[in-house]
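Researcher: Next entry: 3'(2'),5'-bisphosphate nucleotidase (Thermocoleostomius sinensis A174).
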Amino acid sequence: MSYESEKQVAIQAALAAARLCQRVHQEIVPQAIEKNDRSPVTVADFGSQAVICHTIAAAFPNDPIVGEEDAAVLRQPDMATCLQQVTHYVQSEIPDATPEAVVSWIDRGNGGIGSRYWTLDPIDGTKGFLRQDQYAVAIALIENSDVKVGVLACPALPIDLSQPTQDHGVLFVAVRGQGAAMMPLQGGEPKPIHVSTAEQADRLRFVESVESGHGNHDLQDAVAKAVGIQASSIRMDSQAKYGAVAQGEAALYLRLPSPKSPNYREKIWDHAAGVLIVEEAGGKVTDMHGAPLKFSLGSTLEANQGVVVSNGSIHEGVLQVLREQLTTSIGR
Ligand SMILES: Nc1ncnc2c1ncn2[C@@H]1O[C@H](COP(=O)(O)O)[C@@H](OP(=O)(O)O)[C@H]1O
Ligand SMILES: [Mg+2]
Ligand SMILES: [Mg+2]
Ligand SMILES: [Mg+2]
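Model: Predicted structure:
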């Protein structure tokens, strides 16, 4: 299958959602609403999920969608003003949107895992979005546990990472078997992307989360050093990190379980799109034990622990160091 129409729909949805997020930033200072798990959500997360679900459901009405957010909180009577604000931003993309339609579109993302389903993260890196740092709109199509289409819109990412003060806004797109490409969010020719090669010593850098609670900075640093990465990490929110590896700007992205939440299970929408983009750019993604990420078990990667993303050539070495590190720390 070429997945051409799925790719085009995912691109359209991601571009519309990214415009909405940027408009929110231009017009207001978004406030964090605290979810039950104490993590933040904003009007932009809700608006983005509404626009994406509306776009996907219009094109593929039978496909389940598994999105991060749900509209329960927006249905509470004391949230009417917030829902009004979300509706205002959704109307900038879908002019006839009503509050009732917006909550139903958001809840279209409460679907279950099927043999074919979409997963989306309306804003990956909400903490980054709130800090005016990196964030990504992430959309992926999964069939039989295999990611077939992955799209990442990164409005705050420099088009050229070595020129951070120049133009921003990057779209990453990949289809299984067809390679990965990046293009300016504003439009332009897609440029095929490739991970770094073993010879590109200047690209031997690693990326990790800004948030210390989303990983293990100390262990990540030790592992990177052990595989010969001298430079300190580039800390970046969201799946923009997958984009950095896919375009060869970094050789490694490490996401090891945080000591603060050792039993945390990663969410499918935090990885699906990024995994395909890196794999199609020639890289490799496994969990910290070397197992492939399993996208068929529910909304979490229940069978996996930690995530290792690399240019491929250093992957085995990283897993070997991790095996040694884990044996040492268990033996202590
Ligand atoms: N204890 C934890 N360990 C790993 N990831 C976590 C975590 N708690 C939350 N996250 C996830 O980390 C994501 C952000 O990743 P990063 O740190 O790479 O920017 C969040 O996505 P959202 O921002 O979409 O909620 C959230 O799903
Ligand atoms: Mg979140
Ligand atoms: Mg996320
Ligand atoms: Mg999110």
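Model: Note for the record: Residues 39, 68, 126 surround magnesium ion (ligand 2) (CB under 6 Å).
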